Amino acid sequence: MALGGEDHEDVFSDGEENELSRRLKVQINEKDLLCVNGCGFYGTPQWGNRCSKCWREHQLAEKRSQDYAKNRTLLGFDNFQERRKAATESRTLTIKKIFRSPSMLASTSSKTRQLSPDSKAAREVLTDFLVMSLPTAILQEITRQVKYAVMKISELRVTPDELSELVQSFYQYLIDKLSQNPFFNQDKCKVKVEDVISEVEKYICVCCYNSLFCASSDEEVADLSLQDRIRSLNWVTAGFLETKLDFSRQTVRNLLDDAIAEMIDINSHRRSDEKLDCLVRCSHKIFEALKESGAPTSADEFLPVLIYVLLKGNPPLIQSNVKFISRFALPSRIMSGESGYFFTNLSCALQFVQDMNYASLKMERSEFEAYTSGDLVPPLNMINCGCNQVIQSYLLCLISEKCYVDREKQ
């Protein structure tokens, strides 16, 4: 990748060729992005390479196994019946208990929640959609169910994974309930059950965001720790990560800046679909940058650049955003399609950064730690000069000056 012709090769260190040969090459097979259960949907490393549906089924099976083991232990007690009753009553409330018909709970007292401007706007959007699309009876039923679900989500004190299971169960409960309604089976019906659930999901994500996002203090600490780690690994973007990007081109650098901006913008949205839209736009910018660089726009070239964008941008609370989408987005958004594909790649990129060490970068531990601590500065080479606009401008000035001198000599 030339920046200004052979006359300026002496600017770089003699060991550049050796450094280029040990640059980290990231490769992933398309098949590795799919669920290990062979269902055909995308999986993520955080779910043991399962899709969201298979992951929840796996969790359910694990819970059943744990409950079975616990019950076997309880069988050894003399007062088994009393203990079984106590254990049953103390278990996490089931979806039927938590989201049972609001009409049965008129006497339930609860403080009226003051809606934020975002929540009020989301309520208006949902209300307008329901009024324009559905008969009054169905509209009122959905409104009651959603209102009660939002109230319970704000009141519950359960783990993030349990909260995810409850919200996903509510989506499925509503899907099943609406699917049985004759209205949606009419040929003249222009709205689908999936459309209604999509609007409900958007409303819940916005209205319950403070309860759903970064729901655990431990997760917030882990995210801040990851942000520190990414900051300490920023030096990897200075030529240690193999990509096919042509950093000498201003257009490529601008597209990468746009991709980084979209990645950072993920955290500014509450709805899962809007977060995914940011990721999709970010990914499109990456493919445009590859195209401008004359590189293949393939999965093999995409993932390394996504890792580069992640390291360079260090987006705030990115791990919490990925978990939020995993837990509370409709499965259809992340199991298939364009957003599902890019989300799986982002999950892989995050896992890769978390696992990155001296061995994966093919260097000595002491060298890796020196770069990470800032004691050692990455050597000057063609790659990081191409990334640095100041150096790039300086080199262009040198080239222009040389051309001017050559013309004067003629």
Automatic annotation (TrEMBL):
<dbReference type="InterPro" id="IPR041545">
    <property type="entry name" value="DUF5601"/>
</dbReference>
<dbReference type="GO" id="GO:0003677">
    <property type="term" value="F:DNA binding"/>
</dbReference>
<dbReference type="GO" id="GO:0005085">
    <property type="term" value="F:guanyl-nucleotide exchange factor activity"/>
</dbReference>
<dbReference type="GO" id="GO:0008270">
    <property type="term" value="F:zinc ion binding"/>
</dbReference>
<feature type="domain" description="A20-type">
    <location>
        <begin position="29"/>
        <end position="63"/>
    </location>
</feature>
<dbReference type="GO" id="GO:0030139">
    <property type="term" value="C:endocytic vesicle"/>
</dbReference>
<dbReference type="Pfam" id="PF18151">
    <property type="entry name" value="DUF5601"/>
</dbReference>
<dbReference type="GO" id="GO:0016192">
    <property type="term" value="P:vesicle-mediated transport"/>
</dbReference>
<dbReference type="InterPro" id="IPR037191">
    <property type="entry name" value="VPS9_dom_sf"/>
</dbReference>
<dbReference type="GO" id="GO:0031267">
    <property type="term" value="F:small GTPase binding"/>
</dbReference>
<keyword id="KW-0862">Zinc</keyword>
<dbReference type="Pfam" id="PF01754">
    <property type="entry name" value="zf-A20"/>
</dbReference>
<feature type="domain" description="VPS9">
    <location>
        <begin position="220"/>
        <end position="362"/>
    </location>
</feature>
<keyword id="KW-0479">Metal-binding</keyword>
<dbReference type="InterPro" id="IPR002653">
    <property type="entry name" value="Znf_A20"/>
</dbReference>
<dbReference type="GO" id="GO:0005829">
    <property type="term" value="C:cytosol"/>
</dbReference>
<keyword id="KW-0863">Zinc-finger</keyword>
<dbReference type="InterPro" id="IPR003123">
    <property type="entry name" value="VPS9"/>
</dbReference>
<dbReference type="InterPro" id="IPR045046">
    <property type="entry name" value="Vps9-like"/>
</dbReference>
<dbReference type="Pfam" id="PF02204">
    <property type="entry name" value="VPS9"/>
</dbReference>
<protein>
    <submittedName>
        <fullName>Rab5 GDP/GTP exchange factor</fullName>
    </submittedName>
</protein>
